[in-house]
Amino acid sequence: VGNYPAPTLKAMGYKESPTEAASKAFPGGETAGLARMAARLKDAAYIRSFEKPKTRSTAFDPPSTTALSPYLKFGCVSARR
């Protein structure tokens, strides 16, 4: 049968791995989460016009959602605080 390793991301034409790109777009931790939340809360027009059906979770640059879900899920930002 032989040994056929999977091609690397570079060999397939990608410049960086999706994990590396995501870690740059969504740095972890409470400080980053609170900063993201503060930035969204300052934008009154965004808050007034936000409609969930008009957002796409795959839109990252710029994100069409608040992008707070990872911070809420991992406890970096709390709805109770």
Q: What series of H and E elements makes up the topology?
A: HHHH
3D shape: elongated
Residue share in helix = 25-40%
Low-pLDDT runs: none
Query: Residue-averaged pLDDT, rounded?
Result: 78
Number of DSSP-assigned strands: 0
| Structural class designation | mainly alpha
Calculate Rg over CA atoms.
17 Å
First-to-last CA distance? 58 Å
Give the helix tally.
4
- Tell me what portion of residues adopts beta-strand conformation: under 5%
Q: What can be said about the biggest beta sheet? A: none
Summarize the structure.
With 81 residues, the chain is mainly α.
Tell me the layout of helices and strands.
Layout: H1 18-25, H2 30-42, H3 44-49, H4 69-73
Describe this structure in words.
The chain is an all-alpha fold and 81 residues long. Helix content is 40%, strand content 0%. It has four helices and no strands. The protein has helices at residues 18-25, 30-42, 44-49, 69-73. The longest helix has 13 residues, at 30-42. The relative contact order is 0.14. The mean pLDDT is 78.
Properties at a glance:
single chain, 40% helix, 0% strand, mainly alpha, elongated, 4 helices, 81 residues
